[in-house]
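Hello forum,

I keep getting stuck at the same step: I have a sequence, I want structure tokens, and every attempt I make locally crashes halfway through. Rather than fight my setup again tonight, could one of you with a working pipeline run this one for me? It's a single chain of 88 residues.
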Amino acid sequence: MGKVVFSLLLALPLVTLGASSNQKCVLSGLWRNELGSNMTISAVNAEGGFTGSYHTAVTVTDKRILMSPLKGSQNRKSQRKQPTFGFT
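Reply #2:
Ran it on my machine without issues. Output:
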């Protein structure tokens, strides 16, 4: 059996409202897309790391779809003063 590798690209629009520094990027929670796939992200720790899971609702097979673990990191302030993040 071959190993299937899933990639997930999540694009979140970041909006800057005036000069407000109170705006935060909150990743934790349940995220769903229009196809019914969902991703759950734990709280981001003090170092910016987080874990979670991804479960796709899209398939072309009769086989059971397994939940995929994810691990990521958030840089709370980038050079543009907006948080950035990535995960696999």
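The beta strands are 29-32, 38-41, 49-55, 68-75, 84-87. If your local run keeps crashing, start a new thread with the error log.
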